[in-house]
Amino acid sequence: MSETTLLTEYECVEPVQHNQEKYLPGAPISLSGKDAAPLLAINAIKVPAGKAEPVVPQLSTLEQLLTVIPGVIEDKANLTSSGLPLVEALTDAVGFDVSADMRNEAWTAFQAKDAE
Question: Which domain of life is it from (predicted)?
Fold first, then answer.
C-alpha cells in the first residue's frame, strides 16, 4: 500500500480478531476508519472516554453484508442446504432485516471477491 492509512485508537467492548491478533474487552485497538466502521456498527468497539468520536464513513448495505459473511459462514448451522448463508443469520449479524435478494446479491459479490 503506497498511501498512509490514518489509524484511530478505540477500546474493545467485545473480543475482536484483527490482523491475526485477538483483542479482549477493554484492550486498545488501532484501526482505520474502514476497519472500524463495521465494528462500531455492532458495538464491538467504542471510542475511549475523553476522546472525540471520529467521523466514520457509513458502509452501504452490501458492504455491511460483505463484512459479516465470513463470520456467518464459519458456522455450518448458518447455511442453507445449498450452501448459502441463512437470511436469519445475516440479519442477526448486521442488525437489520436482510431479504433473500439482498443475501443473493451479497453472496454473489462475496464469491466474486473471494475468487480474486
Answer: Bacteria
pTM over 0.70: no
Rounded distance between C-alpha atoms, residue 26 and residue 75, angstroms = 27
Coil, strand or helix: which one is 60?
Answer: coil
Q: Describe the chain by its helix, strand, coil percentages, rounded to 5.
A: 45, 15, 40
103-113 per-position pLDDT tens digit: 999 999 999 98
Write down the number of H helices and E strands in the chain: 4, 5
CA separation, residue 58 to residues 25, 33, 86 (Å) = 24, 10, 24
